[in-house]
Each structure stands twice: as structure tokens, then as C-alpha cells.
Specification:
Helix content: 25-40%
Protein name: fructose-bisphosphatase
Bound molecules: 1,6-di-O-phosphono-beta-D-fructofuranose
Shape: globular
Distance between the termini: 19 Å
Family: Belongs to the FBPase class 1 family.
Oligomer: single chain
Catalytic activity: beta-D-fructose 1,6-bisphosphate + H2O = beta-D-fructose 6-phosphate + phosphate
GO molecular function, one term: fructose 1,6-bisphosphate 1-phosphatase activity
EC number: 3.1.3.11
Length: 398
Amino acid sequence: MHSAAIIVSPISNFPPRTYLFPPAIQNSPPQFSAATHPLRKMAFLGGLASKIGAVASGGDHSGAGSQTLAEYMGKGGANVGDELVVLFTHLEYACKRIAALVASPFSSSLGKISGAAVGGAERDRPKPLDIVANEIVLSSLKNSGKVAVMASEEDDAPVWLADDGPFVVVLDPLDGSRNIDASIPTGTIFGIYKKLEEIDHLPVEEKSLLNSLQSGTKLIASGYVLYSSATLLCASFGSGTHGFTLDHSTGDFILTHPDIKIPPRGQIYSVNDARYFDWPEGLRRYIDTVRQGKGKHPKKYSARYICSLVADFHRTLLYGGIAMNPRDHLRLVYEANPLSFLAEQAGGKGSDGKVRILSLQPVKLHQRLPLFLGSPDDIEELESYGDVQQKVNPGYDV
Ligand SMILES: O=P(O)(O)OC[C@H]1O[C@](O)(COP(=O)(O)O)[C@@H](O)[C@@H]1O
């Protein structure tokens, strides 16, 4: 959390113009023939990549590999309404800028906390990269004219943007940025609500807060953008969860993973298990059991943990199993609700270890909680162990 007004010095190193495409390709020299022109090659590869993605995702692929996100949202597709299309166009643009930023030579230095040694709560302090990402999204959402309030993990309080904006956006602009030095994937997470018209008469501070504290059951859309070997935007508008891969040759997000269905059961658990000795007995027993293949699924589970929520969640959505953080660390409003909405829309579950995440009424903007996301059978089995929430949360150095 920080005040959005603090812009620290390394940002001045950030180039004023963010290139979406490599400069060499933007100004491609004339000696290339039509057949060997880099743009043509990239377009071909982009199309190929979309098709490969579509094949890899399994399931019904009608439209996969050719439909853009804008087309999907439009009248010939999900028909989500013009106002939401405008909002999304601006959000997409912001995420493309963040994608370019995290892939740039500046990301490593912007990813470092300046000043004192890192440790404990210090570890969670925002880095310049988080702050720039936050500013990028804020400016895009403001320009959209469609957002009344934006509540960001990086800000102490929600920001009121436009009286006539029909939507409320909650988000974590850049999750996992502590990994950026090692070029490990990062992500943006967002949730969208309708503005509560009935409280329009309240003072700005009050209505900003109440609009942002809506229950997850009121989400009209949510999504994440994964910045990895591919930049992938996964979204749900309340009718399934769909993945769109950024085609760098055109700048479009292309539908590559239509109607993602999480496997009912996986064989992977994802958790920071260096915390094993801080876990309650139930969670230890659960992990010990599935590791040995002695749970309801008679196979030994494997572990995968990137320590980057969007990446760990994305893998879980595709392969099944559980992605978890059993301590009070992740935020209900910005992370748990939007990702639980996506999990449920894909046939999965989001739980705090006891109850459905979406059933929780947020009481504080930056409320933290244990989070378990994944395959329905795995989540149910985990919950049956009862005691899975890590209550000891000493603050960790790394
Ligand atoms: O230290 P832990 O408990 O493994 O937490 C790691 C998690 O924290 C995060 O880095 C998010 O932390 P922040 O919200 O403080 O950035 C996730 O990406 C990751 O899943």
C-alpha cells in the first residue's frame, strides 16, 4: 500500500514512450522482401501460436485462434455491452504497457526497493515497478470515462474517478513483482462491479469505500493478465472463463483458450512448504497424505510453486490441483474474489479453507485471508481436514 502521489526517482529512467513492438520492426528497413519481412513472419508466427494454444487447451475450439477479445465481447460474441467494451479496451491497453514494461531493460532496477535492507514487512513494500504499473492502470481507467471508483492494492484508499462512470474496478496492478529480477512471471488481477447507484448521495470517501467493498457474488467480470513467455489475458463475464493470448505482431488479444474447464481433480499442489512447521496439524496431514498418494486420489501428488499468484493460479486452472497460500497474506478484495470468480466460472472452487470465498463480505479494503483455489474435488478433500488455515504468520524475510 502507498499513496499514489509518491513517484520515486527511478521512474524518470522509464522511457516516455513504451514500445509494444521491437523498434527494429516498427521501422523495418526496406531491404526485406514481402516474403521475408519481419512483420509478415511475426504475423505468421502469431497466428501459428494462437492455433497451437488453441489445440493445447483442449475442448471445443470454435472461434479459437481467430477472434480478438474485442470481437468476443462485442455484439457477435458475448455481447457484454458497449460500456464494458470501452472499459476493457482501456484496461487491455494498460496491460500491454505493463507487459512492455516488465519485459524492458528497466524492469530489474524498477523492481528493487530503494533504501534500507529488505526484511519482514519491508519485503511487502511496493517497488517503483508496482507504483508505475498502478499509475498506468489509473490513467487508462480515468481516460475510459467508464470507471467511478478504482481501488488498488497499491493505494491506501480507493480513488474516485468519474461521477457518471457505471463501473467499479478493484485490482492488484502487478502481483509477484518481487520476482522480477529473475524474470519470473508476474500478473495483473482485476475485478469489476457495477457502481451502487443507491449510495450516490453519500460523501465521496464513503461511497468510494462502500462501492469497493462489494461482495464477490456481485462481480460482473474479473480477470488476470499473465506476463510470461506469452502475455495472456484470462477473463470471465459470468459465462465461462476464457483465455486470450497477446499477438505481438498485431497488438490484439486472440481467443486461444475458450471456455476453460479446470479438471475436477488434479495431481499438483502449490504452496510455500518451507512454512510447514508454521502450518496447523490439518494442513500438514493433508499435504503428507496427498504426497504419498494416500488421499482420495490414489496417485502421489507433485509440488509446483512459482511464488507468483497469477502464474500459480493459471497453471492450476489448466492442469488442476490446488494453488494455496494458507496464511493471512493475500487480499480478499483484489486477489481472492476476482480469482475465485474465475475458478468458479471454470468449474473450480475458491475457499478460505472453511467457506466459499465469494460468500465473504469484505469489511476492510486491504483485508487478508488464507486462500485455496483449484479443482473442486481437491478443495473439498482439503476442507475435510478442518484445520488448514495457518494462524501463525510471523512475517517472512523471503
Ligand atoms: O511469501 P508467500 O507466503 O509464499 O507469498 C507469496 C505470494 O505473495 C505474492 O507475492 C503476493 O504478495 P503481495 O501481494 O504482497 O505482492 C504472490 O504473488 C505469491 O503467491
